[in-house]
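stage 2 :: seqdesign
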């Protein structure tokens, strides 16, 4: 289906969340990497 799950590195830092706390496959990045990876997407959610 091509679904990707991403987490914001800045939000993780502010909330004290570590990469190891996520399930496998979650991509960590900032706003710039998020926008770059979703540029050609038909639908994306930024929550």
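stage 2 :: out
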């Amino acid at each position: 289906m091509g679904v990707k799950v991403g987490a914001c590195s800045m939000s993780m830092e502010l909330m004290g969340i570590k990469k190891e706390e996520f399930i496998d496959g979650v991509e960590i990045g900032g706003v710039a990497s998020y926008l770059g990876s979703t540029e050609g997407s038909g639908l994306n959610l930024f929550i």
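stage 3 :: structure notes
- The chain has a mean pLDDT of 89.
- The helical segments are 9-15, 31-38.
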